[in-house]
Amino acid sequence: MNGKKGSSVRIDICLPSSAVPRETARKSGKGDGDEAIVIPLRKWMMEVWQFAREDTNRVIFSLKVGLACLLVSLLILLRAPYQVFGTNIIWSILTVAIMFEYTVGATFNRGFNRALGSILAGVFAVVVIQVAVSSGHIAEPYVIGLSIFLVGSITSFMKLWPSLVPYEYGFRVILFTYCLIIVSGYRMGNPIRIAMDRLYSIAIGAIVAVLVNVLIFPIWAGEQLHRELVGHFDSVADSLEECVKKYLTDDGSDHPEFSKTVMDDFQDEPAYRKCRSTLNSSAKLDSLANSAKWETPHGRFTQMFYPWAEYVKVGAVLRHCAYEVMALHGCLHSEIQAPYNLRYTFRTEILDATNQAAELLRSLAKDLSNMKHSLHTSLLKRVHASTERLQRSIDLHSYLLTLSHDVCDCPAKPPAKLSHVSSFNVTDADGMKAEAETYHETMKKQQRRLHSWPSREVDDFEEDMSGESIPRMRALESTAALSLATFTSLLIEFVARLDHLVEAADELAKLAKFKQEIAC
Amino acid sequence: MNGKKGSSVRIDICLPSSAVPRETARKSGKGDGDEAIVIPLRKWMMEVWQFAREDTNRVIFSLKVGLACLLVSLLILLRAPYQVFGTNIIWSILTVAIMFEYTVGATFNRGFNRALGSILAGVFAVVVIQVAVSSGHIAEPYVIGLSIFLVGSITSFMKLWPSLVPYEYGFRVILFTYCLIIVSGYRMGNPIRIAMDRLYSIAIGAIVAVLVNVLIFPIWAGEQLHRELVGHFDSVADSLEECVKKYLTDDGSDHPEFSKTVMDDFQDEPAYRKCRSTLNSSAKLDSLANSAKWETPHGRFTQMFYPWAEYVKVGAVLRHCAYEVMALHGCLHSEIQAPYNLRYTFRTEILDATNQAAELLRSLAKDLSNMKHSLHTSLLKRVHASTERLQRSIDLHSYLLTLSHDVCDCPAKPPAKLSHVSSFNVTDADGMKAEAETYHETMKKQQRRLHSWPSREVDDFEEDMSGESIPRMRALESTAALSLATFTSLLIEFVARLDHLVEAADELAKLAKFKQEIAC
């Protein structure tokens, strides 16, 4: 319980029992003065308080579960309902505990699973019991045993089937309800009566769970999904800006070693973490959309058959944009870096394109958040224009990228090792056919003869084969400048994908009938 | 049930009841001759058969669940045990149905949750009942009601806490066990007796579930995790090769539109799909490692405290390599493409580096699979050497990349639009300070004066602002050649990350005490 929050942080579990002494210490009063216990306790209380304040829905949900349990327990604690329903009412409690989920949609979904599972199991059990009874006294236990074996095997196999995985819980319900009814029926007689009693009490539990969930501060999966998607737009925009800004200001002096950072832990890049959560959002969006489908129109979502599936699609396209941000981020932390001066040269164009792209993303997020549908044509055109400017600039000044080892003033780095001259070594003699030779091919060969192939470098490698340590890849300084081309290409590709994102967002706005806005 | 397999395919659910007529139709014999029913049924049977054959563990698991249910039902179906245990034995059935998981580790984990949850709930219930009884006849139901409310709220709040999420099931168990014991105790008296009886029957169920799971064809989470990771290595190698091969052979004639393929559906790239599953493998590896921790030494994994967590770390590094493959794949399907001839020019070097990298990955996979620890130094060096050759080649022939709009013989594509000449337009007048001007900056400005800035292009955009359709980004042909630089940079970065992968794999081999091999 005294762990930090944050989904990616994994903390040792401290079982509730160990929290008890602290609780006691607190109750016995600070006056007793065991400061060493009081301070961690206060810290822990602050953490819990922060966690609750961050999303008050968490507290609301907890109180609702408590209330639902209390209500259903009243059926037994009060004399009148107990005399009507009897001990079977404990099934209501079980149903509430198992069925009560965080969102309304998920509760409906689970309730549906439970109801359908119970009914199917009940019907099947009654049929099998009739068959068993009519097959005679001796065969009866064999028929029942065989049926239990078959139901167990078949439901377990079915729940592994990919398209039935979301209904896993339903199959579990079928299995244990079937076993319970048929076994109680065999020993206690009158299986139909037992099945019906149990269905009644399950229905009572389900009704209490649904009513409490829907009527008291309902937490709608649709609303959560909507907010989640808006948040993902913002976090992609943030991490794009953060990444580009860092690329342009970073002079390479304080690069953390990649091996230390490969475990996804970039402390100084808060937006990057959010972007990573966007990459892993697929399952969450899916499950929220799946729950939202079960919800009735509510709040801002008044339309019947609201297109929740479109949210998942927009999320998928957004994720494709986020992959490019990840690649940009990879470029930023790559071991092969363009010199700072060169990066600074294209600073204005890169920043301009980035800011325009981030603005477009934020505008999409804002519109989605306000459920408005406005045309993003002019914003999109501005992004395209700035990207085109970037392309032209790179194009005009591409000689800077490739000749950098001649003219570059890279500080504190050795010059490219192109001066090694050794014998010409045809490394690609294996398969290149003469008829396939293009203009480039010829150019390349001519050039090679001029510079000659530096094969000795390669041989260097082979010498210390017995070395224990893992060799590190060496990057050629001379190609380092090309990494700027990579960075800008990725940025341009990101912008190209924005087109599809705008398209997907438009499609969503159309299907969800967002309010049309003429002005942009 | 008649859905196709494949985890990314979502199929409409056809409830089991609808399968019954088909089943009957089959049993009544094909002789009756309703061919229209028989053919889909046969197809469906084939699919189920394929699904079962793909992984026989699925069938084994299903039969084991059936067996466990049958065994525990025997306790009631046979007279002798029933007379000993009574009707409480139905809790054994519930326990088996809820506790029986696919792998041994997951079953242990769930069993631990259930056991600890039941015990905590039982102890707490007994304490509260004593308090309630001693507080007098009138206060008793209030004390019980309040305690139910508190237990419901607190367990629900705790299970939302990030580090306690994996124990969600345990909290559910606490909640319903507590409610059941305290409520039955209130109405039926002697809560300690009830709690003990229930614990016995839960223990019987748990023992049966564990014994069946462990003794009959056990499915170990550790083994699954091991195989899963090996498979991910292979799929990254496959998709790298597939992607590069496609890049080098694709002449751009049959590009599917990006919008059609953005939804991750590249039919002709089977390895890419596998690579995507690697990207999304984080949750699966985590949960398998989590389950594996609960398992005793088994099969090939004879060491106590086997380092399952290292598998997750290697998986994370591998995922970082896979991100680069995704970026390469993005390059392949980018709208801005280097001309085919140019790609062909560097074919040998790119293929060589790719093959070496894939070979290294496969060698790592093989060693992991055989639990051997061999030095990959020479393989790694060979990869580095071929990557360095690629870098040098790009470096030597970089003029091909940037001058391509002058010399390139790209077929069927318009020439670059650099001939537009208009007035000089200082687009970056906003913030570039004079003192920051570098050599590059000066060069760039000079160059700009020569070529002049094509600002008219940008103005073109603004004119048709009222247009309804979403504008598509235009790529400059002249920068298209730079996309080759991007592709190779990404490939080089991929190789750079392989170093860290080898390191992580070595660490795993050391901790897991894989058999040392001297030869490579």
UniProtKB/TrEMBL annotation, chains A, B:
Keyword set, alphabetical order: Ion channel, Ion transport, Membrane, Transmembrane, Transmembrane helix, Transport
Cell compartments where the protein resides: Membrane
GO-annotated biological processes: malate transport; monoatomic ion transmembrane transport
Keyword Protein biosynthesis found: no
GO cellular component terms given for this protein: membrane
Similarity comment: Belongs to the aromatic acid exporter (TC 2.A.85) family.
Protein name, UniProt field: Aluminum-activated malate transporter
Organism: Ensete ventricosum
Organismal lineage: Eukaryota, Viridiplantae, Streptophyta, Embryophyta, Tracheophyta
